[in-house]
Design goal:
The protein has helices at residues 7-17, 36-45, 62-72, 84-97, 114-121, 139-145, 168-180, 238-249, 254-266, 269-292, 317-327, 354-364; strands spanning 23-24, 79-82, 104-109, 125-130, 150-156, 184-188, 211-216, 229-232, 296-297, 305-309, 329-330, 332-333, 345-348. α4 packs across α5 (114-121). It has a seven-stranded mixed β-sheet, with helices on both faces. The chain is α/β, with parallel strands linked by helices. It has two domains: 7-34 and 269-364, Aspartate Aminotransferase, domain 1 (Alpha-Beta Complex), CATH 3.90.1150.10; 51-266, Type I PLP-dependent aspartate aminotransferase-like (Major domain) (Aspartate Aminotransferase, domain 2, 3-Layer(aba) Sandwich). The protein contains twelve helices and 13 strands.
């Protein structure tokens, strides 16, 4: 079996080696502050008794699982604390595929590249369904692609890379399709706090044994390095997921869980709204500059990515490297996300230098 190293790493390394100043718009790493209560909890943790530096329960600290469960309207036994959303998605896809219900994984195009990568690792077969020009997914196209071999349907809302937010009727229809084909809908909702449209709907709104919801605090609390995520499983699927988590990772960081728990309890909605407002302002500034460059672009309904298409400049790796060398801006090639956006380049608006990057792009393509 051959594994491909994600292009993210190649582009980031290329940008680091550049002979000029480069604005990094490659990775989705928030540049804003984490909640102050989280910093306080980290300081507090350093002075706890030594037993608090040992293994936590494998499925996660009970109090954190209970806090998540109360907020999401599920039982704490359904919640598994994971090493970020990355492991949560791995566990969800693995659990869906090991039911011996087929090996096909339905993915969107464009797609976050880690989902196809996980499909390969788990021995599944990829089947892609194209979204429309706004990144919206038509449930009828998913139903047409589904078959008796369909084990998993993976969606991400708000979406990376398109910024689309799937409305309630789309999510409800996807749950229905999963039930109809005895498949599992895996709904990755890691950007839920960055819904700019008011249209976000969680798959948890629909009671079903055929959906798993994954999430993490990496983006919402600007702590991608803490690796605290979670998956919410139906009762029928959770025990084997806990076993796989224990065998692969043993447990998730105890101090990270402690800090997240305190931040959940003590951080008000103003923190999250301030970050959304910052993002709205960056989207406006960045897209204004793309207008000046006569570029076509997506305006995100959520998450923090903009995809842009420049006339005569397809989104290949070679062109992204040229953009680094000649304009001093690093984005991700559209070809990294599938076949449907190969003319596009994705930019992450998680840098205080987003305006500088916009000015450079406008000047370069003028």
């Amino acid at each position: 079996m051959e594994y491909e190293t994600p292009l993210f790493f190649h582009v980031m390394e290329y940008a680091k080696r550049a002979d000029r100043d480069v604005v990094d718009m490659v990775s989705g790493t928030p540049d804003w502050e984490p909640p102050e209560s989280l910093r306080d909890a980290v300081r507090e943790y350093a002075d706890l008794e030594s037993d608090q530096f040992q293994y936590p329960p494998s499925e996660g600290l009970l109090e954190l699982r209970e806090e998540i469960a109360a907020r999401r309207g599920v039982d704490a036994e359904q919640v598994v604390i994971t090493n970020g959303a990355g492991e949560a998605n791995y566990l969800a896809m693995a659990r869906a595929l090991e039911r011996d219900r087929g090996s096909e994984v339905i993915l969107t195009d464009p797609v976050y590249p880690y989902y196809p990568g996980k499909t390969t690792i788990l021995g599944g077969t990829q089947r892609f369904v194209a979204t429309d020009e706004d990144g919206q997914l038509d449930p009828a196209a998913v139903r047409a692609a589904a078959s008796e071999e369909t084990a998993v349907i993976v969606v991400n809302t708000p979406n990376n890379p398109t910024g689309a937010v799937y409305p309630e009727e789309t999510i409800e229809a996807l749950v229905d399709i999963a039930e109809e084909y005895d498949a599992i809908l895996v709904s990755d909702e890691v950007y839920d706090h960055y819904d700019l449209s008011g249209e976000f709907a969680s798959a948890l709104q629909f009671e079903s044994d055929h959906r798993i919801v994954t999430n993490a605090f990496s983006k919402s609390m600007a702590i991608t390095g803490y690796r605290v995520g979670y998956a919410i499983f139906p009762p029928t699927l959770v025990e084997n997921a806990k076993s796989r988590h224990m065998l692969v990772n043993v447990a998730t960081t105890r101090p990270g869980q402690y800090a997240v728990l305190h931040a959940l309890k003590e951080t008000g909605p103003d923190y999250f709204e301030a970050n959304r407002q910052l993002l709205r302002e960056r989207v406006e500034t960045f897209t204004d500059a793309l207008d000046a460059a006569d570029a076509e672009y997506t305006t995100p309904q959520g998450s923090f990515y903009v995809m842009a298409r420049f006339d005569g400049y397809p989104g290949t790796l070679e062109n992204v490297e040229r953009l680094i060398d000649e304009a001093g801006v690093a984005g991700m090639p559209g070809e990294a996300f599938g076949d449907s956006r190969t003319d596009w380049i994705r930019f992450a608006l998680v840098t205080p230098r987003a305006e500088t990057a916009a000015e450079r792009l406008a000047a370069y393509f003028d």
